[in-house]
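Input.
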Amino acid sequence: MARALVALGSNQGDRVALLERALVELAGLRGTQVVAAADPVETAAERREDGGPFLNSAALLETSLPPRALLEHLHEVERRLGRERATPGRGPRLIDLDLILYERVVVRRGAGFELPHPRFRSRRFVLEPAAQIAPQMIDPVTRRTVADLLRLAPRGL
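Output.
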């Protein structure tokens, strides 16, 4: 079983209920269990077009799914919860699930996705909840722990 770190976010509808439903869906994935879930943290949206404040959390999973399959399942969970990916990463979102880390696996962008998530190191809204549940998880690119990355992250986002 591999350990994977997933970021969760919502800034529309009943944000708490959506995050809770996403965790239930993640726990229901074949060969996957939720080891820990972070307390939600409210943060401002990165861009004005993203809408109102987000509620962000993180989940630490143990899974037998390989990284690409896990990411596809995350996208399917988003669809089941009502997310439309017309313009990924832009605008308000009912639910946003991002695969941040998968063990110490590195996947370069040319593979159709990227691991670790390319922007997580500078996003406090990802690092704060992640550090609650996986402070010693290692970023294989920088070889720093999640706790170290949070300490070094710029203030604000």
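The longest helix spans residues 67-80.
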